[in-house]
Design goal:
43% of the residues lie in helices and 18% in strands. The longest helix is centred in the middle third of the chain and has 31 residues. A hairpin with a 3-residue loop joins strand 1 and strand 2. The chain is built from seven helices and seven strands, in the order E-E-E-E-E-E-E-H-H-H-H-H-H-H. The protein is of the alpha+beta class. The radius of gyration is 22 Å and the shape is globular. The chain folds into two domains: 94 residues, Butyryl-CoA Dehydrogenase, subunit A, domain 2; 153 residues, Butyryl-CoA Dehydrogenase, subunit A, domain 3 (Up-down Bundle), CATH 1.20.140.10. It has a four-stranded antiparallel β-sheet with strand order 1-2-6-5, with no helix packed on it. Strands 3-4-7 form a three-stranded antiparallel β-sheet.
Length: 262
């Protein structure tokens, strides 16, 4: 019930001595239908928004846990709704101390955002350059260059910005290592990397023309079908792990040092 205001979460864990009783729900549980256990941040104190949050491990096969896969526009179901109804969680499943959940969760989100941003990992998954793909689908001139000058300019512009991002991401990773861990710079990487990956997916559709619009059928290659699904799934990347709007707030406050003014 908290939306993007994660610290306002309402899933409640009631202290019962040697265990907690958890009630509430969570949306977008990645891989919930396959997992044996999940980590969850829950409210253990309703009197304090941030310090009333704790972090714990919950068995997915415990009585009272119900998982419902969510079918995405891409046709896959990587996420779930998870419902907790009087779920018994042993005290030893508490991670850290009671009330430390917000601090732990923020740290994990920094790692997740760095991951989502792409950096080197996403680059290795992308395969051939857009220029090479475009030459396969479009006409080339006498010099072997893509004849469509407008598309050629779009690809060149993207590749320049993407490679600049990769260099920035590499620098940020090295700085994080020197500082002993990730930092709020992960919000900058997440904001830029996810937007660039969406742009690339859209360019792939434009490059392939009608072959970039297939959903099924023998007239399309596996790569073409995967690209369409990837384009649709990629719309979620600027939302999950903290929306772009949330990242803008973090960058303004934590990176640029801007403060709220009344």
């Amino acid at each position: 019930n908290a939306g993007s205001d994660l610290a306002n979460l309402q899933t409640f864990a009631e202290d019962k001595g040697d265990h907690y009783i958890v009630n509430g729900q969570k949306t977008w549980t990645s891989g919930g239908q396959w997992a044996d256990k999940c980590f969850a941040i829950v409210r253990t104190d309703k009197s304090d928004k941030h310090r009333g949050i704790s972090f714990m491990l919950i068995d997915m096969d415990a009585p009272g846990v119900e998982v419902r896969p969510i079918t995405m526009i891409s046709g896959t179901s990587p996420f779930c709704e998870t419902f907790f109804s009087d779920v018994k969680v042993p005290k030893e499943n508490l991670v850290g101390e009671e009330g430390q959940g917000w601090t732990i969760g923020k740290r994990l989100l920094q790692h997740e955002r760095t991951n989502i941003s792409g950096g080197g990992r996403l680059a290795s998954m992308m395969g051939r350059s857009l220029g090479e793909i475009a030459k396969r689908y479009g006409k080339t001139d006498a010099d072997g260059e893509l004849a469509n000058k407008v598309l050629r300019d779009k690809i060149a512009d993207f590749e320049i910005r993407w490679n600049s991002f990769l260099l920035t991401a590499r620098r940020a990773v090295e700085e994080s290592k020197a500082q002993g861990g990730v930092s709020e710079i992960s919000s900058v990487l997440k904001k830029l990397g996810t937007k660039l990956s969406q742009e690339r997916s859209e360019l792939l559709i434009e490059i392939r023309g009608l072959q970039g619009l297939g959903w099924e059928g023998d007239e399309f290659t596996d790569g073409e079908l995967e690209a369409v699904r990837g384009w649709l799934f990629g719309k979620a990347t600027t939302i999950y792990g903290g929306s772009t709007e949330i990242q803008n707030n973090i960058i303004a406050k934590r990176v640029l040092g801007m403060l709220d003014h009344q």
